[in-house]
Amino acid sequence: MLVCGIDEAGRGPIAGPVTAAAVILPEGFPMDMLADSKALSACQRERAETLIRELAIAWATGWASSQEIDRWNIHQATLRAMARALERLAVRPEVVLVDGRFAPPTALLCRTIVGGDAIEPAIMAASILAKTARDRWMRIYGRRRPEYEFERHKGYPTRQHRRLVLEHGPSPIHRLSFRVSPPG
After folding, report:
1. What is the DSSP letter of 118?
2. Whole-angstrom Cα distance, residue 177 to residue 169?
3. pLDDT of 77-104, one tens digit each?
4. Is residue 176 part of a domain?
5. pLDDT in the model for residue 35
6. Long-range CB contacts (< 8 A, 24+ apart) of 145-154?
7. Which of 24, 114, 122, 151 could anchor a disulfide with 57, C-beta 3.0 to 4.6 Å?
8. Do the domain assignments include residue 177?
9. Is residue 32 part of a domain?
């Protein structure tokens, strides 16, 4: 049975897109490389990303911009990013395992699993691809807007990031619907 895992990265930041990844792993994939992306170092995630991209039966990413997040809300934007990732898969899975409580709008059979990124290998792989893709996007964008130091915090509301937003105002990728408290 072709099982696809799907997960997102970037719900909590105050800047940048939310990114989803969908992954179909082959039988016998080396599970020792997998874990929830939050439990791995950046170096471990990048090594795992390379292996996943090389060995997966299929994988794809989907994105929702900060403007879409502001228009629809983070929940709806996340579901749309997931649906976009599923649409881009080159292979149609028989079932989709979704991390969390809510499934994206799709005709595919979906099963939601709270905490799935800690127990389901395909979701772990999706978590890694979503996180590495989003972090890379933030680093690249950060070169265009170095005053926000996106390469350091990836858009998360650190004290330094909040200070920089107060100093420079929001950038084009800041989520205007998210409240930014002053650094303190």
Report:
1. G
2. 14
3. 999 999 999 999 999 999 999 999 999 9
4. no
5. 73
6. 145/171, 148/15, 150/15, 150/16, 154/13, 154/16
7. 24
8. no
9. yes
